[in-house]
Amino acid sequence: MPSKPYLLNKRPQNGGEHEVHSLYECEHLPNIEFRIPLGSFQNCIEAVSAAKQKFPGHVIDGCKFCSPQCHTR
Ligand SMILES: [Zn+2]
Questions:
Q1: How far is the CA of 64 from the centre of ligand 1 (A)?
Q2: Dist. CA 16 → ligand 1 center (Å)
Q3: What is the pLDDT of residue 41?
Q4: For the chain, what is the domain count?
Q5: pLDDT on residue 2
Q6: Domain of 65?
Q7: Ligand 1 center from residue 29 Cα (angstroms)
Q8: How far apart are CA 61 and CA 51, in angstroms?
Q9: 26 C-alpha to center of ligand 1: Å?
Q10: Among 38, 47, 56, 65, which residue has the least CB neighbours within 10 Å?
């Protein structure tokens, strides 16, 4: 399976969480100035894991539109 580029929304949701999005699969991406590139991954599970390591102070969640299997909040 090819890997896909993911990004983190710099701006938190109302609940304080930062959402991970799949760049080419999401129709609800944050504005470009709020996108933090995370690199390419096989799936959102890997992308969320990487985001948590990179930003340990953030609450990280998957976008419910492009990464529903990682959306927990
Ligand atoms: Zn998304």
A1: 7
A2: 16
A3: 98
A4: 1
A5: 84
A6: 4-70
A7: 5
A8: 9
A9: 4
A10: 56
Return d(Cα 5, Cα 50) in angstroms, integer.
12
Torsion of CA 14, 18, 19, 23, to 10 degrees: 120
Residues with CB under 5 A from ligand 1 (ion): 21, 26, 63, 65-66
From the CA of 21, how far away is ligand 1's center (Å)? 4
pLDDT one digit per residue (tens) for the chain, 73 residues: 789 999 999 999 999 999 999 999 999 999 999 999 999 999 999 999 999 999 999 999 999 999 999 999 8
Where does the chain have alpha helices with state H?
Answer: 44-54
What is the spatial distance between Cα 5 and Cα 23, in angstroms, rounded to a whole number?
A: 6
| pLDDT for res 1 | 76
CA of residue 7 to ligand 1 center, whole Å: 9
